[in-house]
Amino acid sequence: MRIEQKGGAAKMIEIEKLQLYYGEFQALKNIRLSIPERSITAFIGPSGCGKSTLLRTLNRMNDSIPGVRIEGRVELQGKDIYSADTEVESLRKRVGMVFQQPNPFPKSIYDNVAYGPRLHGKLKKADLDELVERSLRAASLWEEVKDNLKKSALGLSGGQQQRLCIARALAVEPEVLLMDESTSALDPISTTKIEELTRELSRSYTIVMVTHNMHQAARISDRTVFFLNGEVVEAADTQMLFSSPVDQRTEDYISGRFG
Ligand SMILES: Nc1ncnc2c1ncn2[C@@H]1O[C@H](COP(=O)(O)OP(=O)(O)OP(=O)(O)O)[C@@H](O)[C@H]1O
């Protein structure tokens, strides 16, 4: 097993001896992994290997699933997010998430982006206006929607809706953005836009993405983690992992022999 750390990059997330059980079934086995800040880390591997489960542990989205048991540590900037004094709501403010299907609220474009800040008590109209614009600009959507902010978000195309969901996530000013197959429901042009946007965002945010598409991981991520049967087989700089994998199972997977 190769677990290489990018030289010098500060760690944002540190996972130590993580085990996750759904009832009797162990879905994650002894995961040890560092995620560097301001970069893109991609999780790849065949269906059912635990990618989404691990992603969800990073903002405690598994907490609400009955029968889930977790052992080990997940540290965000050195603090265990599973400790008793962690407030899940403030954790989720720091670690935002974008899902596979764009899921805007049935509200206006403006209200979608303002939703999180309002929830967290930012209510002054001028501040909100500024934050909504900044978030939409950061999500590369502002120019397309600036004259229609009061219109329903449901009238946007799928790709625009996904960028709106990214703007909504950015509006609460997170440090980490989790992306679970966030382009798999989109057409190729929208996918390219989101990939370019993700690269741009990785200059300011730590991004962890799950993808079924290993070409996407190779194209845009800085680091890639290959999973199999709930274990990390290999984690390395993306270029290294795809050009000279150390583990035979990684080589078999990236050369399309299974999965
Ligand atoms: N809520 C749940 N209850 C019980 N088992 C679950 C639950 N969610 C996932 N699992 C099981 O845990 C394992 C890992 O699932 P997970 O969704 O994390 O894999 P994945 O690698 O993201 O798969 P995919 O690429 O198909 O989305 C699978 O065997 C799955 O059946």
UniProtKB/TrEMBL annotation:
Q: Name one GO biological process term.
A: phosphate ion transmembrane transport
Give one GO molecular function term: phosphate transmembrane transporter activity
Q: Which UniProt keywords apply?
A: ATP-binding, Nucleotide-binding, Transport
For this record, the Gene Ontology CC terms, alphabetical, are: membrane
Pfam families, alphabetized: ABC_tran
Q: Which InterPro entries match?
A: AAA+_ATPase, ABC_transporter-like_ATP-bd, ABC_transporter-like_CS, P-loop_NTPase, PstB-like
Where in the numbering of this chain does the ABC transporter domain appear?
13-254
Top-rank lineage group of the source organism: Bacteria
- Would you tell me the protein name for this molecule? Phosphate ABC transporter ATP-binding protein
Organism encoding this protein: Cohnella lubricantis
